[in-house]
Design brief:
The complex is a heterodimer of chains A (207) and B (438). With 207 residues, chain A is an all-alpha fold. Chain A has seven helices and no strands. By secondary structure, chain B is of the alpha+beta class. The model of chain B has no long low-confidence stretch (mean pLDDT 94). Classes of the chains: A mainly alpha (207), B alpha+beta (438).
């Protein structure tokens, strides 16, 4: 009963002993049980019509959707992100103190996002598409590559501007740290923030 | 035996979490936390109902209750409780509805991905099951997460005409949507109080002013989201919001042109119908004469329209050729083509005979419906039933010409139906017969 959420409605004390005992075993209030019953009734009603379409394929898709996203896609991109951070951490710190990871992370992720959505068109998988629409399947790969190129170009420009701003900033005021280091959107120099709080590991600033 | 199993299970549940993702210290992202999750949750809480309503409206637009011919999900039962006779005005109603449904769905992909990323530690919470109530909550997540991904994937594959999902799109997306909504209702009921509390815990304005250097993790919460052993931040919380927003904006920018049409169509560089079709007066199609198996011998001089009127007294079919139709009073209607897949065209200048005039010619002044049959054989939409309101609308035509020229074979020559605010697949091409009912 530790995590028992508070529910509006009659207090548990007003209920008969049997009901109270049941709810203690159940682990939540009567409205919780009612909501759950309603949800599973509706989901079950819809599933009863959904499943006959393909009694094997559809459950596989539902469970596969969860596994494919939570246990495959997400660990993969997390691993990729961490790997890049680790690999470049061991490089000699010959760059000025600007956090660089987001200038790589953002274009890669946005390009990957477009690929995730449009891969059937990009890889020309719907072979009937040209026959039914009179449109060609050829441009999508080039469009995706061009957009990817533009994203990297934009990101590189933003990074160069940021580097320049930081260099000018450090030359101007030697004592404070390299100003505010912000999100990928922070292309324009921020208003001069307070000096870098002490105790931040140098590795982050140098990379 | 049973009690030993139960006690062992109880011991497992009360034991400390095994090493790995079930330990909170495994999750180190310093930006994960209830506030960030709640921001994404709020965006979805506002947007998903729009997706749901536009989806239900899109289904209503097929007038599934009018005839079994129109119904792609005949077993819907109570789930069709809301159906109504689909209107013909405003003429851009279906165009707007589907443009919103598809474009918003695409735009929500990064928001959904960030939301799921932000709550991943919850999947591994320990103990995995605290009580029967908790077990039911976790089971409902299969409807929620499985349903969400299922709906997004089937929708996104369908608009690219890559039909790799396990069945016909309509029942899958329709019933799948209801399963998803069932999961969402539970999730919303349980989490809205948590969300409101989390949103109040930090000021959005303050977060938008907090740069990376000043980003501190949210304090560890009972909800398992914020890290107990956070790593050094590499992105600020406003950076995460900008990241997701940039993803949504990019997707919108590269796809909305296929629904806006006109001079903006080319901007849809990554959307199925972002390419211009050849010819200044030409426009997009989703079924060509070749793909529908329509041959020139069927549409040439031999073509005849069979006009039937089913009255109580019996049937009285008559035939009309194209020249005969052209001799009838011609009307023009400026109407778009709007597809369930979200793309649409600008208004095209259609010319032809009004459906209401054809009904009268068939001997029926107050038709209740018309069965439109195409020369196309087979195919889910080779025949359709239109409602009384759709027949009687003065803009509803059996079109013979478009944009000042005869229909091309791909646009339905010799004759096609065009009805305002109706899904494209209900504007039947290569019409062979019209059977009006009293």
């Amino acid at each position: 009963m530790r995590h028992l959420p508070r529910w509006p409605g009659p207090s548990l004390r007003d209920l008969p002993v049997m009901v109270r005992r049941f709810l203690r075993w159940y682990g939540a209030g009567p409205l919780h049980l009612l909501t759950m019953a309603g949800c599973f009734a509706l989901a079950g009603y819809a599933a009863a019509e959904l499943l006959p379409n393909n009694a094997v394929g559809i459950p596989v898709w539902f469970v596969g959707a969860v596994i494919g996203h939570d246990l495959i896609l997400m660990p993969l991109y997390t691993l990729a992100d961490r790997s890049v951070l680790v690999v470049f951490r061991h490089r000699p710190p010959n760059l000025p103190a600007v956090p660089w990871i987001n200038y790589l992370r953002v274009p890669v992720a946005l390009s990957g996002l477009l690929l995730l959505i449009w891969f059937p068109l990009i890889f020309r998988l719907p072979t009937r598409f040209p026959v039914t629409t009179t449109l060609s399947l050829d441009p999508y790969l080039w469009h995706w590559l061009a957009v990817t190129g533009a994203l990297f170009l934009l990101s590189a420009t933003a990074f160069a501007l940021r580097l320049g701003a930081v260099r000018r900033g450090t030359r101007k005021r030697r004592t404070p740290g390299p100003g505010s280091a912000g999100a990928p959107g922070d292309v324009t120099p921020d208003p001069p923030g307070p000096p870098e709080p002490p105790g931040l590991p140098a590795s982050r600033l140098e990379l | 035996m049973k009690s030993r199993l139960a006690s062992r299970l109880a011991a497992l549940m009360s034991s400390p979490p095994p090493p790995g993702p079930t330990r909170r210290s495994f999750w180190r992202s310093p930006v994960r936390g209830p506030w960030l999750t709640s921001v994404f949750g709020l965006v979805l809480l506002v947007s998903i109902p729009v997706m749901f309503v536009t989806g239900l409206l899109s289904y209503a637009a097929y007038n599934p209750d009018l005839s079994p011919v129109n119904d792609e999900t005949p077993g819907k039962g109570l789930l069709g409780f809301y159906l109504f006779s689909w209107p013909t005005h405003p003429i851009w109603l279906y165009r707007l509805n589907q443009g919103v449904h598809v474009t918003l769905g695409l735009v929500l992909v990064p928001i959904l991905l960030f939301k799921l990323w932000s709550v991943l530690p919850k999947l591994f919470e320990w103990p995995p099951l605290r009580s029967p109530a908790h077990a039911l909550e976790r089971l409902s997540l299969l409807a929620l997460v499985g349903g969400a991904v299922f709906e997004f994937v089937t929708g996104i594959l369908n608009i690219q005409t890559w039909y790799k999902f396990p069945g016909s799109f309509y029942p899958l997306h329709f019933y799948g949507g209801w399963v998803f909504i069932a999961g969402l209702v539970v999730h919303t009921t349980l989490k809205v109080p948590v969300m409101i509390r989390a949103l109040r815990s930090r000021s959005l304005i303050a977060e938008l002013r907090t740069d990376l250097a000043r980003t501190r993790p949210e304090p560890p919460d009972a909800g398992y989201l914020a890290p107990v052993a956070p790593a050094e931040p590499t992105i600020s919380r406003r950076g995460v919001l900008a990241f997701a927003g940039a993803g949504s904006a990019l997707i919108a920018l590269l796809s909305v042109g296929q629904s806006l049409g006109g001079p903006l169509r080319w901007t849809a560089l990554l959307a199925p119908h972002g390419q211009d079709v050849s010819g200044p007066d030409d426009f997009q199609v989703n079924q060509t004469a070749a793909s529908a198996g329509i041959t020139e011998s069927e549409t040439g001089t031999a073509w005849q329209l069979t006009l039937g009127g089913e009255t109580g007294a019996g049937t009285a079919p008559m035939v009309l050729n194209r020249a005969g139709l052209l001799r009838m009073e011609q009307y023009t209607a400026s109407l778009p083509i709007a597809c369930v897949e979200g793309w649409s065209t600008d208004n095209q200048a259609w010319a032809g005979v009004r459906l209401r005039d054809l009904a009268r010619l068939a001997g029926i002044t107050r038709p209740s419906s018309v069965l439109v049959q195409s020369l196309e054989r087979g195919g889910a939409f080779s025949q359709v039933v239109l409602s009384a309101g759709q027949i009687m609308d003065p803009l509803s035509l059996l079109a013979l010409r478009v944009n000042g020229a005869d229909l091309t074979p791909d646009h339905g020559y010799p004759a096609r139906v065009i009805v305002p605010a109706s899904p494209g697949v209900h504007c039947t091409k290569w019409v062979a017969s019209l059977t009006f009912r009293d």
